[in-house]
Amino acid sequence: MTSLTGKRVLVTGGCGSIGSHLVHEVLSEDPEIIRVLDTDEEGLFKLQKSLGDDAPVRYLLGDIRDKNRLELAMENIDVVFHAAALKHVTLNEYNPFETVQTNVEGTQNVIQVALDEEVESFVAVSTDKASNPTSVMGATKLLSERLVIAANTYKGDRETRFGCVRFGNVLASSGSVVPLFMEQIRSGGPVTVTDPEMTRFIMPISEAAELVLDAHERMTSGEVFVLKMPALQIGTLAETMVEEYAPTYGHSVSSIEIDIIGARPGERVHEKLISADECSAARELEDMFVLLPQIDAPGYEAVNYTNAEHVNGEYTSVDAHLLSENEIIELIGSIDGLPK
Question: Which sequence ranges are marked TM in the entry (predicted)?
């Protein structure tokens, strides 16, 4: 039995890569019901078909920009996992007004309704791009984190716990590089690489979802949990995938060209999960780091981290364990629907 057993759970953005896996993970904890809120009608239909009619899940069309819809969706809810966001870095650079409306104002809506409904706990899913951000998406996700942490100061006598989970790229998530490279290899190339020296944190979706639930179990109030992740170099990923999968699709390795197209707007060469400015508040746990709240967050229990080691330096993708070619192939082989 966990803290989710018998609970009523809402997952915003529940048709997305992380959100849908969170739904599956929460289901395994035997909740009373899960409500999935998403703007994606087709995604809701597919999720319903995959889970079956007997699953204790309700599928709700709605946008987190619509506070009235949120009030109905969150009625009598105990736990909120907030995964709804606009996440494509370059698209967000060209559409910053829309990004702010969803990632900032939408998050504020979800928080305000959660306070009104006096939910027990609230976990927001964030990104490495929120650490010392250089993009519109990263900046809005950092502000989203700050809103969630500050919500602890607005709760008065409520017992709601607010916290965040931050991690990097999720393998084979919507719009990610592995499915793109695979399709380009299938078509005979070229494989388009922004910068072969770029590094990115990477982890399987299932592992990310599991660690979100683990962070929910540990959370007191006001923490940002930062998941430990390996990283890979984009050039190594492209070369490894060409060598491994070109023959699978009837192409010779030498026939697949790799084109260097340059970084896109908002992209940086290396990602950060913990910046230099955040180190003083960072503590290291076994499978994750935790950023302690820097404001007075009622409900926060510092004693939980008394024996945790201080983090002395930035946690960046260039300094993380870089996956070898064999490790990359093993990781890609774990993705359902891709060649083994």
Answer: none
Check: CB of residue 92 under 8 Å from CB of residue 86.
yes
Query: How distant, in Å, are the alpha carbons of 80, 84, 99, 122, 146 from that of 149?
Result: 14, 17, 20, 10, 5
Cα distance between residue 147 and residue 28, in whole Å: 30
One of 7, 87, 129, 141 is an active-site residue; which one?
129
pLDDT tens readout for residues 244-266: 999 999 999 999 999 999 989 99
In a domain, 183, yes or no: no
149 part of a folded domain: yes
Q: How far out from the chain centre does Cα 234 lie?
A: 20
Question: Which range among 26-40, 150-164, 324-338 shows the weakest confidence by mean pLDDT?
Answer: 324-338
188 is a domain residue: no
Q: Which residue has the tokens 């559409």?
A: 95
Neighbours of 207 (CB within 10 A): 17
Give the domain range for residue 216.
8-167+203-228+272-315
How many domains are there within the chain? 1
Bridge partners, residue 161, by sequence: 121
Per the domain annotation, does 58 fall within a domain? yes
Predicted pLDDT at 179: 87
Q: How confident is the model at residue 36 (pLDDT cuts 50, 70, 90)?
A: very high
* Residue 129 appears among annotated catalytic residues: yes
